[in-house]
Amino acid sequence: MILDKIENADLYFDSVPGMERFMQFFNDNDLETFPAGKLRLDGDDLFINIIDLNSRPKKEVPMEAHRDYIDIQVPLTATETMGYKAQEDCQEMLQEYDEGKDLELYNDESVAEFQVPVGYFAVFFPSDGHRPGLIPEGTKLRKLIVKTRVQQ
Questions:
Q1: Structural contact between residues 90 and 65, judged by C-beta atoms closer than 8 angstroms
Q2: What are the residue boundaries of the structural domains of the chain, listed by start?
Q3: What angle do CA 148, 108, 80 make, to 5 degrees?
Q4: Which of 21, 53, 79, 101 has a CA positioned 20 to 30 A from the CA of residue 31?
Q5: Are residues 41 and 22 in contact, defined by beta-carbon separation less than 8 angstroms?
Q6: Which residues, 6 or more positions from 57, have their beta carbon under 8 angstroms from its beta carbon?
Q7: What pLDDT does residue 143 have?
Q8: Torsion from C-alpha of 16, 21, 24, 25, nearest 10 degrees
Q9: What is the pTM of this model?
Q10: What is the CATH number of domain 2-149?
Q11: pLDDT tens-digit series, residues 104-128
Q12: CA-wise closest residue to 106 among 40, 47, 61, 149
């Protein structure tokens, strides 16, 4: 897992596939004005989901993990709290792995929670269980979820 400021993204170009291409796109566009949806930067190997979230009770936000993609999560309009637990330590399966969605869900509690302010990003590798989308009641959040395929 990585947590850092957007301005330091170049430090991770060699260790996070697709990060350099994403940052070129990010720096050249005002993604707050794009409509919500999926933008493909490199077919199925690198794409961005632009989503708008409303707050929801913490108990309704599951822990998630992926196998084929790395997540780069970037809050655009508000601070987002995220949770972390090593995927191998997740025990309470909520939804078995769905290959089509590259997603498995857990009912586990986070071992750590941290804030990701606007201007920061978090990277979650397949070994990282994560619980994104924890935002204060009454808050609306626009965020980017960049999906970059793990290099085989």
A1: yes
A2: 2-149
A3: 55
A4: 101
A5: yes
A6: none
A7: 97
A8: -110
A9: 0.95
A10: 2.60.120.370
A11: 999 999 999 999 999 999 999 999 9
A12: 61
